[in-house]
Amino acid sequence: MEIKVLGSGCAKCKAAYNTIEKVLKENDIDAKLTKVEDIMEMLNYNIMVTPAIVIDEVVKLKGKVPTESDVRKLLGI
Fold this sequence. Notes:
- The protein has 77 residues and is α+β, with helices and mostly antiparallel strands.
- The protein contains three helices and four strands, in the order βαβαββα.
- A four-stranded mixed β-sheet has the order 2-1-3-4.
- The protein is globular, with a radius of gyration of 11 Å.
- The mean pLDDT is 95.
């Protein structure tokens, strides 16, 4: 599983990354988690607001910081 957090590096984007990272560790999930801060790469996902969460190349959430519960739902756990 590959998870990307799209955003410019703002506080909300960092919070989204940290929340996802915490849930992955707590549930011992092996996933590749990366930050995407390059505007040209973000445009490939056709998003207008950040942070955006992409799982296996599908945009799953955009414009808000996910809670731990949100992340669990997105991951199906």
